[in-house]
Amino acid sequence: MATMKQVAERAGVSTSTVSHVINKTRAVSEDVRERVLAVIGEMGYIPNAMARSLKNDKTRTIGVSVPDNTHAAMAELLRGIEDAAFAVGYNIMLCNGYEDPQRQAAHLRSLIEKRIDGLVLVAGAARANEELAALLSSGRVPVVLADHAVAGVDTDFIGLDHEATGYLATRHLLELGHRRIACVAGPAHEPAGSARLAGCRRALAEAGLALDPKLLVHGSADCQGGHDAARRLLGLDAPPSALFACNDLMALGALCAAREAGVAVPAALSVAGGDDLGVAAFATPRLTTVAQPSHEMGRRLTELLLQRIQGDPAPRHQTRLGGQLVVRHSTAAPQAR
Amino acid sequence: MATMKQVAERAGVSTSTVSHVINKTRAVSEDVRERVLAVIGEMGYIPNAMARSLKNDKTRTIGVSVPDNTHAAMAELLRGIEDAAFAVGYNIMLCNGYEDPQRQAAHLRSLIEKRIDGLVLVAGAARANEELAALLSSGRVPVVLADHAVAGVDTDFIGLDHEATGYLATRHLLELGHRRIACVAGPAHEPAGSARLAGCRRALAEAGLALDPKLLVHGSADCQGGHDAARRLLGLDAPPSALFACNDLMALGALCAAREAGVAVPAALSVAGGDDLGVAAFATPRLTTVAQPSHEMGRRLTELLLQRIQGDPAPRHQTRLGGQLVVRHSTAAPQAR
DNA sequence: CTGTTAGCGCCTTCAG
DNA sequence: CTGAAGGCGCTAACAG
């Protein structure tokens, strides 16, 4: 691959002149400039960003560590990050951590070797191991945390307001007149799910109700988990008239279980989810849910990170972005008995 | 950040010795080795991969350009790539091209500046513009093409066998006894969709049938497109008894439309899709579809690319990976009339 | 077994 | 307006 030196020779100028025409970093006579540009075109010269980075100590690359890019919400977040980064000429290095601190640490180590300018970390529920925590808090790389705090890592954070999500969905069910409301939650230790559950409880409490322990079922945070949980709830002696599933996947699973149990939605059971995946709008029936601004979260995280990279000394930033209730056809007033 | 030189000074040795203990690239006396390692630990020294790459001309980074990482199939593919790359110590630079040749070219240019070792390109349906094509065929970077050929770029290719997918799904419907089979297809120019449609036609032809033009509806390749197409089909004077949607999103949309039209699935209408998204198994009813080995495709693409990077001169490789029919509850024999 | 040296490709003073 | 020279951090001959 052509180098600047070769370009310089062929154009009969010094490398510094070539450098300056490329970067417009000092005045160059018009004819020299044109000649150099012509040679660059002919030779198909493309500057070597590594050599450049070695000098500047800036790679214009940011690392992104997510638990799993196939989760719809992660994918959306990732897209927000990539969009915001591209807009200012940065590239993204993607790492799937799979909630495995070992793997995450290996990734991060590699990213640091490659001297990323910053890191967007979506940690997931797993606790960071010692190595990962050390790398993160060593301050070698600016880090912004997405949606999940990481114990011992005190840095900028932008997340979703999961508590509000649970609250909004549940209040919607209450406003429809439901009183016997179940919650289908993910694994108990998972922070996002726990917050949504807490929001659910708060809404219930405001209505003078408490969540019946029999109506709270934990399961895996996917369709299968939602399906199994709903089936259990529908088998109860006194089944709920409405159900809040902590995320859309679980809600979709619940819808599936209801249909298989011959329970009509929303006539006999209202179901609300949270996320607003693309397919939720076309579920049977179309799912009422709480849309999350995942793309925006990615964008804002990136903008924040870029500010830190530029040395912005502002105090630690922490926000949670609210979701929006989207009422569709899976919820309705309870049937008269 | 600590440099090798600093480590060398502090350990009282030369940088080359430090280099050699790090890379185990020549014998070093045990005590010196230990001393160096100790200093590395103390100082938290992490080698600078850029400086290293400047010498080797290898970055251990591969670029991945996809149309949009939020599409479920892309996400799965991407994960396959990342997994395979991580397994051999490579990192991934992710770019979303959004079917925009301009943006793709900008990304590729940036990746070349950063001297990626290779590129996995998922081109999408859009035609490459001049700049992009030039960059791709200039041979500066080994490229493997995923699923979509690119005009003028003659290189390794691994895709999905979309034709077989259409064939399998349609033959399944035929074997159930359907004769009036509709096809819900994506945009006419889209290669994957067209191939699935062709497979559908082939299965029909083998059964001595032809696809009734009225029963072929093109639309956007998402839930909305599938929904609208199905609604149109169900409004026909002689509606189909079965329907093959070229992908799961469209199939899910079709399911939605059927329910809204009061058409029971599978009693009055069988629906088959193609992809096997995670949610397909929990659709109402659970969707019969053709699962695609997207993850495997990503893995194989990466392995192939890595071979090319290592200079493997084997002739151009071209494969299409077959999908697998997954029969669930959205298809059944046609109702007697 | 260890150190010295010469770059990798680029930017950036410092001179002219 | 232009060129020469030094150095970013690391590796790999080449000496000893």
TrEMBL record, chains A, B:
<dbReference type="Pfam" id="PF13377">
    <property type="entry name" value="Peripla_BP_3"/>
</dbReference>
<dbReference type="InterPro" id="IPR010982">
    <property type="entry name" value="Lambda_DNA-bd_dom_sf"/>
</dbReference>
<keyword id="KW-0805">Transcription regulation</keyword>
<dbReference type="Pfam" id="PF00356">
    <property type="entry name" value="LacI"/>
</dbReference>
<dbReference type="InterPro" id="IPR028082">
    <property type="entry name" value="Peripla_BP_I"/>
</dbReference>
<feature type="domain" description="HTH lacI-type">
    <location>
        <begin position="2"/>
        <end position="56"/>
    </location>
</feature>
<dbReference type="InterPro" id="IPR000843">
    <property type="entry name" value="HTH_LacI"/>
</dbReference>
<keyword id="KW-0678">Repressor</keyword>
<keyword id="KW-0238">DNA-binding</keyword>
<dbReference type="InterPro" id="IPR001387">
    <property type="entry name" value="Cro/C1-type_HTH"/>
</dbReference>
<feature type="domain" description="HTH cro/C1-type">
    <location>
        <begin position="3"/>
        <end position="46"/>
    </location>
</feature>
<keyword id="KW-0804">Transcription</keyword>
<dbReference type="InterPro" id="IPR046335">
    <property type="entry name" value="LacI/GalR-like_sensor"/>
</dbReference>
<protein>
    <submittedName>
        <fullName>LacI family transcriptional regulator</fullName>
    </submittedName>
</protein>
